Amino acid sequence: MKKYIFKPVISDNFKSVLTLTPDGKTIHIFYQGVEIQKHDLTNKQFNYDLHDKHAILKSDLMADKTDEEINQYMLNNLSIYDRIGE
To answer: Whole-model pTM?
Structure first.
């Protein structure tokens, strides 16, 4: 089983905290005391949320593309990350 170490990340103007659920299956990410994201832990090398990945692509690299074009790009090109470490 993998070991995860969570420590508060502190900067001059914010405090972020990562917590692990008691069952060890989910991490919760808090920013200024508010949960902003959670991720289920898997055996995959990269653990990401599809909505986050879409938002990142839409915000810059593919700002001129439709949602369908971005979804197709993710399916065709980024799903390879799911196979890393198999």
So the answer is: 0.54
Higher-pLDDT residue of 18, 86? 18
Contact call for residues 46 and 81 (beta carbons, < 8 A): yes
Amino acid identity of residue 57, one-letter, is L
Mean pLDDT (whole number) for 43-62: 81
DSSP string, 26-82: EEEEEETTEEEEEEE--SSSS---HHHHHHHHHHTTTTTS-HHHHHHHIIIIIGGGG
Would you state the structure tokens that stand for residue 71, as one six-digit string? 């979804």
Contacts of 79 (CB under 8 A, 6+ apart): none
Average pLDDT over residues 2-19: 55
Cα 4 from Cα 6, distance rounded (Å): 7
